Amino acid sequence: MWIALAIIAVILLLIAAAAMSNIICTFHFSKEGRDDKALVDIHMLFGMVRFHYEMPKLVFENMKKGFLLKLEKSNNVHRNSGSTTHTRINKKKAELWVHDVRILLKSTVAFKKWLQHTFSHVRIHDLNWSTSFSTGEAEWTAVATGVLWSLKTTLVGWLSFQVRMKSTPRLSIIPDFRDEMLFSTEFNCVARLPMGYAMFASFILLFRILKVEGGLKRWFRLYRHMKGKGQKVPSV
């Protein structure tokens, strides 16, 4: 009896400790000329669980084939977890993504509302976005500088309404007036979501899925489709 109570108490303490931790996501993207690189690091349970994603290559082939993306994944949960995949992003892939989103919307009660509530608990602790460029002509570089400033402030302004900004975003645009086309940009962001709210949001999502007849089955079907390769798009 006492052993069972002790085990239950330990489990409850572990759950409480996990709920007090944060899911920390660090995102980095840089582009200089034709060189692209993106990194995503996700830490959970006080850093005991870590996931790493790296995109060292993104190549545009042509309008039909689209982009070829190389993705490297690793984590500290499974042994030999490192893997490298190549994904093609084109019109057909975009249509599949749109179809998948429609399935999620039909399979979940008020899925958009759930997403909005979840993102409203995400806290951005650092956001740094710098860009340097040249159009090759001084007058057009000056015009493009104003356009880029407008674009950046609009995007960051929209983001500030979706999440909680804990620090002032640092934005910079450096025009280069050389007589050649140049472009480089670097984006860094650190976001946190309380694990306790993530657990709560997961239960709410499950409840919303179960309220739709066949909703859970569609989610599992979509998951199997995303894990598989070359499978047909699941029907709703």
Order of helices and strands: HEEEEEHHEHEEEHH
* Total strands: 9
Biggest sheet: strands, sense, closure? 9 strands, mixed
Radius of gyration: 22 Å
Low-confidence parts: 230-236
Transmembrane segments: 191-210
Keywords: Membrane, Transmembrane, Transmembrane helix
Protein name: DUF2953 domain-containing protein
Organism: Paenibacillus dendrobii
Helix-strand blueprint:
Elements: H1 2-19, E1 22-32, E2 35-44, E3 49-62, E4 66-75, E5 83-89, H2 91-107, H3 111-119, E6 123-135, H4 138-162, E7 164-165, E8 170-175, E9 181-194, H5 195-210, H6 215-227
Parallel strand pairs: 6-7, 6-8
Antiparallel strand pairs: 1-2, 1-9, 2-3, 3-4, 4-5, 6-9
Helix pairs in contact: 2-6
Summarize the structure.
This is DUF2953 domain-containing protein. This protein has 236 residues and is α+β, with helices and mostly antiparallel strands.
Structure commentary:
It is a single chain. By secondary structure, this protein is an alpha+beta fold. It has a domain at 32-89. The protein contains six helices and nine strands; from the N terminus they run αβββββααβαβββαα. The chain has helices spanning 2-19, 91-107, 111-119, 138-162, 195-210, 215-227, and strands spanning 22-32, 35-44, 49-62, 66-75, 83-89, 123-135, 164-165, 170-175, 181-194. A hairpin with a 3-residue loop joins β3 and β4. It is globular. Mean pLDDT is 85; it is low at 230-236. Pfam families: DUF2953. This is DUF2953 domain-containing protein. Keywords: Membrane, Transmembrane, Transmembrane helix.
